[in-house]
Write a structure and sequence with these properties.
The protein is built from 20 helices and 16 strands. It is α+β, with helices and mostly antiparallel strands. The chain folds into 3 domains: 3-63 and 166-207, Winged helix-like DNA-binding domain superfamily/Winged helix DNA-binding domain (Arc Repressor Mutant, subunit A), CATH 1.10.10.10; 68-159, Orthogonal Bundle (Arc Repressor Mutant, subunit A); 227-475, Bira Bifunctional Protein, Domain 2 (BirA Bifunctional Protein, domain 2, 2-Layer Sandwich), CATH 3.30.930.10. The chain has a 7-stranded mixed beta sheet, with helices on both faces. Strands 1-5-2 form a 3-stranded antiparallel beta sheet. A two-stranded antiparallel sheet has the order 3-4.
């Protein structure tokens, strides 16, 4: 495109700002001289930058500013100066000083370190050095314009001063600007309007040239958070398969529902402080169905051979697995045959790395039927991997859980991280089902749905789901499969 045609392609905003980029100037200065807002000026300059007419330069700045605590001393004496001035009239006890106890505690170490004061006979006394001493930050504390680095460190430790970061954009002319500027015209028609047609102005003026090949700033539109959109679509798929969603339940539960009702003995290693968050206050929760507790207690004592403790069953914990909600489901007399699921938040004191979080979502579910088998469970888990993670690379490993027999662990292969454990599954044991008066086979599973999402959304770190980085949120892969 020649320079005349390029000049004729400039938008109204570009024409307004181009004449004010006669040297390196900040966007704020250009906006003021062009009579535009900074947003408008920046948009026009970005268009010019895309065409190579100006060069935009980003400059990061840091400056010292007062904290909220520090602002109270602007225009008045700092505690150290107030103490030194007060001692010029003679020794004083701490209670006689014109500062609070907190202010005194914050600066007494500094005053003693500099040799400005000393204690004599229970009173604070000014030394000879203290009579004429000036701290280097005193003269510029109000404006902070001459604050040196060492002074900043002292005031920052005291919580009076901090740094504030900002970004300033500058526009610089390029050689192309000098060539284009003489051809910039304001008497061009940017758009065909009824007024332009009625007046006949289109016969006398030139139309603005539009270059459809010119790059433009990328537009970002609102969309759902990627991970929660994935969970929503998983739910939709499960509904389509005939599953019914379980009640969400409470996050804080008695150990009875979290573990004991699932046939987990009270002395099981998974029920100690290293695997469960215990609630500090209140510690216990009483309203648990007495008849159900009686049946579960009898089953535990008969099968596990230990003495049941009612107080342990009432102990409150944060829900450590979504299977606890299946215990509530079994107690509510579910339909037989029936298919149920839940995607619920659970909490565990675990490692914090690319595939572990301290709180996460778990896909839990059960199927109750006269003819359901372990083979059906394996097929269902494979279907989940295919539907929710888009992979056929699945393997199973024999597992152990107190509430299922047989039990299995599901693994899928992440393209970057290799084989990842997704969760456990199995057939609910008869000893678990009997207190609930359920006498049909039940398959059950508890899966880390976040690890499925890692594969579906193409990420390598599960923590990205909760990222505030706009670069990730804008570029996250859309969920189509589920």
């Amino acid at each position: 495109m020649d320079v005349e045609r390029l000049a004729l392609s400039l938008s109204g905003l570009e024409r307004k700002v181009i004449r004010h980029v006669d040297s390196r100037r900040s966007v704020a200065e250009i906006a003021k001289s062009a009579g535009l807002s900074e947003v408008e000026a920046m948009r026009g300059l970005q268009y010019l930058s895309n065409k190579g007419i100006v060069r935009l330069v980003r400059e990061e700045r840091k400056r010292y500013v007062h904290t909220e605590k520090g602002k109270q001393y602007v225009g008045r004496k700092l505690p150290e100066r107030a103490i030194l001035d007060a001692l010029k009239d003679g020794p004083k006890s701490i209670s006689e000083l014109p500062v609070t106890e907190e202010e005194f505690s914050g600066v007494v170490g500094l005053l003693k370190k500099e040799g400005l004061v000393e204690f004599k006979k229970g009173k604070l006394t000014l030394t000879e050095r203290g009579k004429t001493f000036m701290f280097p930050w005193e003269e510029c504390y109000d404006t902070l314009d001459c604050l040196d680095e060492e002074s900043y460190k002292v005031l920052n430790r005291r919580g009076l001063v901090t740094t504030e970061e900002s970004v300033v954009w500058y526009a610089e002319p390029t050689k192309l600007l000098k060539d284009v500027l003489p051809h910039v015209r304001d008497d061009v028609i940017d758009a065909i309007t009824p007024e332009v047609l009625r007046s006949g102005a289109w016969r006398e003026k030139e139309f603005r040239v539009y270059d459809v090949t010119s790059p433009v700033p990328k537009a970002y539109y609102g969309k759902r958070q990627p991970y929660y959109e994935f969970l929503r679509r998983v739910k939709d798929r499960l509904y389509a398969l005939g599953f019914q969603e379980e009640e969400p339940g409470e996050i804080v539960l008695p150990m009875f529902w979290n573990s004991n009702a699932l046939f987990m003995p009270q002395d099981h290693p998974a029920a100690d402080i290293h695997d469960i968050y215990f609630v500090k206050s209140p510690k216990k929760y009483a309203p648990i169905p007495k008849e159900l507790v009686k049946r579960v207690r009898e089953q535990h004592e008969r099968s596990w051979g230990y003495k049941w403790d009612d107080e342990k069953a009432k102990r409150l914990v944060l829900r450590s697995h979504a299977t606890a909600l299946s215990a509530f489901l079994l107690a509510s007399k579910p339909k037989i045959p029936g298919k149920y699921f839940t995607i619920s938040r659970v909490f565990r004191p675990d490692e914090f790395d690319y595939k572990h979080l301290l709180e996460f979502n778990q896909l839990d579910g059960v199927v109750l039927s006269d003819d359901i088998t372990f083979r059906d469970l394996l097929g269902l888990l494979k279907d989940f991997a295919r539907e929710f993670a888009g992979t056929d690379k699945v393997k199973f490993k024999a597992g152990y859980f107190p509430f299922t027999e047989p039990s299995v662990e599901l693994f899928v292969k992440h393209p970057e991280k290799g084989w990842m454990e997704i969760g456990g599954a199995g057939m609910f044991r008869e000893e678990l089902l009997e207190p609930f008066d359920i006498h049909v086979p039940v398959i059950a599973w508890g899966l880390g749905i976040g690890r499925f999402a890692m594969m579906e959304l193409g990420i390598q770190d599960i923590r990205e789901f909760y990222s505030k980085r706009l670069s990730y949120l804008r570029s996250a892969r859309k969920v189509w499969r589920v």
